[in-house]
Amino acid sequence: MILPIVAYGDPVLRKEAKDISAEYPKLDELIKNMFETMYGASGVGLAAPQIGLPIRLFIIDATPFAEDEDLDEDEQEVLSNFKKVFINAQILEETGDEWGFSEGCLSIPDIREDVFRKDVVKIEYYDENFEKHVEEFDGLAARVIQHEYDHVEGILFTDKLSSLKKRLLKGKLSNISKGKIKTEYRMRFPEAKKAR
């Protein structure tokens, strides 16, 4: 089932999400719905807060990036099979050089900006079967993880922009929170909720 994506301005996007247990109600169904929602919006990652749930769960399918001819063959290979579920994730370490990449977010449609992040991330997480992993990722895989991880920490990519950029985007962000935007996918807007 495709769920509405929560828009910028909703308080759930600013909450630090809570850990869940393997007994979380209908977890398999939730994960399936999140993948369906993400694919329906042409995304490569989706965090539970983006569908209104303040829990430490995010999903990634970075396989579309594998077709990027600017990437080296090794990175294309990694991304071609990069479909994962991250539950109760904790970033243990971010290392390497910072590099910029134009990021967007399904909760902040029509805004893309260069965000600088470290190249390598070491992360501990549970998969959909509640098996624990500690893994290291680099390049675009690391970046997508860092972006989605920020969501469960209550951080948005726009927080990482300069104060000048933030001021320039203020009007656009305000319009998004009021629902004054057209998207190809269902959204839930905070201002519309207040008006009811």
From TrEMBL:
Signal peptide: none annotated. GO terms for biological process: translation. It comes from the Bacteria. InterPro entries: Peptide_deformylase, Peptide_deformylase_sf. Its cofactor is Fe(2+). The active site is at residue 148. Fe cation binds at residues 105, 147, 151. Removes the formyl group from the N-terminal Met of newly synthesized proteins. Requires at least a dipeptide for an efficient rate of reaction. N-terminal L-methionine is a prerequisite for activity but the enzyme has broad specificity at other positions. PANTHER family: PEPTIDE DEFORMYLASE (PTHR10458). Belongs to the polypeptide deformylase family. This is Peptide deformylase. The lineage of its organism: Bacteria, Pseudomonadati, Bacteroidota, Flavobacteriia, Flavobacteriales. The gene is def.
